[in-house]
Amino acid sequence: MNVTDIIDNSNRGLEISTDETAELLAAETQEDINELFSAAASVRDMVFGKKVFVYGFVYFSTHCRNNCAFCYYRRTNDLSRYRKTGDEVLALSASLKDAGINLVDLTMGEDPVMCADNYSELLNIVRRVRDEVDISIMVSPGAVPKESFPMFRDAGADWFACYQETYNRDLFSKLRLEQDFDNRLNQKIWAKKSGLLTEDGIMVGLGETLEDRADSILKMGSLGCEQIRAMTFVPQTGTPMENLKPTESIDELKSIAVMRLLFPDRLIPASLDVEGIAGLKTRLDAGANVITSIVPPNKDLAGVAQHELDIDNGHRSVSHVLQMLDDMGKKAATNGEYETLLRKMKAGKR
Ligand code: SAM
Ligand code: MD0
Ligand code: SF4
User: Whose CA is nearest to atom 3 of ligand 1?
Assistant: First the structure.
C-alpha cells in the first residue's frame, strides 16, 4: 500500500498494521513526507484546534544511580552534578507559572537522596509545589516501586513519566544497563492504576529498525498513555555511545506524525531538548501539540539531551517560546483550559 492509502485508512479509523506503520515511517519522497505531515497537522487541529500546551522543565537533581548507555548523567560519567533544594524548586516552579506555563515537569536522575525513605524528599517537594504554587505537575523520577504510585498521586502529581525508549527487549538491555524491561513497562501500568496520567516515549536513532520503531509506537499507543513522545538520540561525551553517528531529526518528525495519525487525541511533545528552539516549528508542523523542555535561563538548570543548548541565551524561556507561538499563529492554552483537559483525561473521557 502507498502512503496516501495508509493515511486514508487511518483517517477512516481502520486498524493500521505494524508493516503499514513502518511504511509510513519509511516515507522518503518530499511529496510523501509533506502528505504525512500535513495529514498529521490536520488531525491535530481537528482535535485540539490552534491550542498548544507549554511545559516547564525542572531537572532538579542530576545525580543518578543508574548507568544508561546513552545518558550524559549516567553514574560513571565524571561531571559536576547539582541537587536543588525544595525552596529552589518551589521558586522555579512559581516563576514558570507566572510566566505562563501550564505544567512543571519535576525531573531527576535516580538520585539516592531523593529515593531514600520511600521518596520522602521528592514527595515533600511535590506536595509543596501543589499547595504553594498550585500548578499541574508531572514527575519524572525514573523507575519506582509499585507502592509509591498512590503516594505520588496523593502528594498532588497529575502525571508520571517514564520512557521505555524502545520495545525491542534486546536493544533495551543494551541501553538501560542493569535495568528490567518489565519493571519499566509496569511503571506506566501501575501509575495508570493509581489514577495518574502517564507518559511513554521512544528514542530514535539508536540502531533500531523501522519495524522496531513502528512496533514501539503501536505498543506505546495501545498501552493508553495520554502523552507519547519520540526524541532523537543525541550522542553524549564520556558515554559508551558517544561515537554513534547522530541521525537527522527527520526520523523523529516522521515518528511524531505517525503517532498523531494513529493516536489523534494524545498529547505529543515537541521537545526543545534535541535541536533547541530551531526545532520547534518543524515538530509542531509534524503534529506535536505540547512544547516541553522550556528551561528558565541563568538558574543553573540543565537539559537532558542538550544540557546547555539555548538555555542561558534565553531561547528556551517561556517568553521567547510564547512569542514564537504567536508568530506561528498558534495559541498557548490557559491553565484553566489545560486543567479541564486533564480532568477529562483522568475521567477517561479524552
Ligand atoms: N532519570 C529519569 C529516567 O531515566 O526515567 C528521568 C529523566 S531521563 C534523563 C529522561 C529521558 O531523557 C530518558 O528517558 C531518555 O528518553 C531521554 N534522554 C536521555 N539521554 C538522551 C540522549 N542522549 N538523547 C536523547 N534523549 C535522551
Ligand atoms: C523534555 N528533556 O521535555 C525533557 C525530558 C523528562 N520528563 C522530559 C526528556 O524533552
Ligand atoms: Fe539516570 Fe535517567 Fe540518565 Fe538513565 S536516563 S542514567 S536513569 S538520568
Answer: 142
Q: How far apart are CA 162 and CA 179, in angstroms?
A: 13
Q: What pTM does this model have?
A: 0.98
Give Cβ neighbours of residue 191 (< 8 Å, ≥ 6 apart): 149, 152, 160, 162, 198
Ligand nearest the Cα of residue 176 is: 3
Q: Which neighbouring-strand residues pair with 197? A: 159
Ligand with minimal distance to 54 CA = 2
Cell of 158: 497529575
- Ligand of minimum distance to the alpha carbon of 237: 1
Ligand 3, pocket residues at CB < 6 Å: 64, 66, 68, 71, 73-74, 109-110, 142
Which element (helix H / strand E) includes 137? strand 136-140
pLDDT in tens, 62-108: 999 999 999 999 999 999 999 999 999 999 999 999 999 999 999 99
Mean pLDDT calculated for residue range 232-255? 97
Query: Which DSSP category does 132 fall into?
Result: I
- CATH number of the domain within which 162 lies: 3.20.20.70
User: Which ligand 2 atom sits nearest the alpha carbon of residue 105?
Assistant: 7
Asked if pLDDT for residue 232 goes beyond 80, the answer is yes
Residues with CB under 6 A from ligand 2: 57, 105, 107, 140, 161, 271, 273, 292-293, 303-304
**Rg for the chain (alpha carbons), in Å?**
19
Say what the pLDDT of residue 1 is.
87
Domain coverage including residue 304: 3-346
Cell numbers at 173, concatenated: 538491555
**22-59, pLDDT tens digit by residue?**
999 999 999 999 999 999 999 999 999 999 999 999 99
Q: Give yes or no for a contact between 177 and 164, defined as CB atoms under 8 angstroms apart.
A: no
- Backbone phi and psi for residue 286, each to the nearest 5 degrees, phi listed first: -90, 0
Indicate the length of the chain as a whole number.
Answer: 350
Q: How many domains does the chain have?
A: 1
For residue 265, the 8-state DSSP code is: T
